[in-house]
Write a structure and sequence with these properties.
- Keywords: Hydrolase, Membrane, Protease, Transmembrane, Transmembrane helix.
- This protein is an alpha+beta fold.
- The protein folds into three domains: about 60 residues, no CATH class; about 110 residues, Band 7 domain (Tetrahydropterin Synthase, Chain A); about 40 residues, no CATH class.
- The protein is built from eight helices and nine strands.
- Strands 6, 7, 8 and 9 form a four-stranded antiparallel β-sheet that branches. The protein has a three-stranded antiparallel β-sheet with strand order 3-2-5, with no helix packed on it.
- A hairpin with a 7-residue loop joins strand 7 and strand 8.
- Helix 3 crosses helix 5.
- The chain is rod-shaped.
- The C terminus is likely disordered.
Length: about 300
Amino acid sequence: MRNTTIIIPVIVVLLGVLLSSVFIVDEREKALVLQFGQIKSVKEQPGLAFKIPLIQEVVRYDDRIQALDTVPTEVTPSDDRRLVVDAFARYRISDVVQFRQAVGANGMRAAEERLQGILNPVIRAVLGANGVTSNTILSADRAALMERITAQARQRALPLGLDVVDVRLKRTNLPEQNLDATFARMRAEREREAADEIARGEEAAQRVRAQADRTVVELTSDATRQADIIRGEADAERNAIFATAFGADPEFFEFYRSLTAYERSLKGSNSTLVLSPDSEFFNYLRSDQGARSAEGE
C-alpha cells in the first residue's frame, strides 16, 4: 500500500516531465528551441520534437507568406509632380535564426516596423529616379518599377532574415493640398469648353435665324408681288367687263351701279340715310324717275 502511494505520484511527475519535453511543429511554422535566451536548435520540419523541460522554451514563427500595407508616402518624380503612393508587400521568414537575432523577442511587430523602414525609402528612391515621370508611374511601365522596388527591398531585407516576395503599388494620388487646385483647374477647363460650345451654338443659331428671316422676307415679297400681279390682272379684267357692260347698255350700267351703292351704304346695323330729297343718289328710287324711264321705253 505504501509502495503504491509513492509510485503513483512518481509516475504522474514523470508523465508531466515527458509531456513538457515534447512539442509539435506545424507544417505552417518554424520553431526555435531557446535555452536562457540562446538558440539551441531549429525545428523547420513538421512533426514531434523534444526540449529540456523547465530549462528550454519553444518560440514559434509563421512560415507562410505575410502581407504588409505600407504607410502612404510622398514621392517626387523627375517631372516635379508630387504623388502620394500607397503600396503593399508580401514577405516571409527565410532564415529563422537570423530573424531572431535581428528582431529579438519582439517578433513580427518589430520585423514589420523594420521592413516598413526599408520599403518607404526604396519606393521614394525608385520612383524619384532620373527618367521616371508621373506618366511613367501611371502607365503600364509601372510593372518594371515594381520589379525594381521588389529587388532592392529584397536585398535590404536579407539581414533581417526576411525574403520580400513582391511589392505592388495599390494607389497613386495627388497630395491632398494639390487636389483642390487640380479640381479647380479641371473645372475651369470644363467651364471654358462649355462657354466655347455655347458661343458656337449662339453663332449657329444667329445664322439660322438670319437665314430664316431672309427666307421669310423673300417668300413674303414674292407672294406680295404675285398677289399684286393677280390683283392687277383681276382689276383689269373687271374694268374690261365694266367697260363692255357700259358700252352695251349705259342706262342699265348706271342702274346697277346705283343699286350697288345703295347696298354698300345700308350695310351694318345703321340703315338710316339723311340726304337732300333732290339728291342724285335717289334718282332710281324716285317715282318720277321710274316714270321717265317707262316713257323712254
